[in-house]
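Hi C.,

You asked whether I'd gotten around to modeling the 104-residue construct. I have! Everything is below, sequence then structure, no commentary in between.
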Amino acid sequence: MSKATENLEAAQKRALAIRPRVGGFPYLAETLRRAGVTRNFWSPPACQSLFLTNDGPVVTQGTPLATGTMDVPYDVDFLARTVAYYGCNGEEYVEAYPVVEVDS
């Protein structure tokens, strides 16, 4: 286990121990901030959370909330024929893909 992972898990345990039963999020947020977590990107359908920390990025993967095909925002624009890729530090790369013919 990396230092980043150990630090994140320890901070989460500390936050759970000190938070009140109601309104506990600010306690979690402050505990993570003090532990060097700078950002968190959460993808609810996938139950995935990416934490950017001073020690490196850490991903937490839970059990997905749903499986199969469902309505969610997409990063592929089929009309513009572009795909957008996003990095963990806010980078964005948009790439066009060519028109192709397919059999119907």
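If it helps when you're writing up: Residues 3-61 form one domain.

Thanks,
B.
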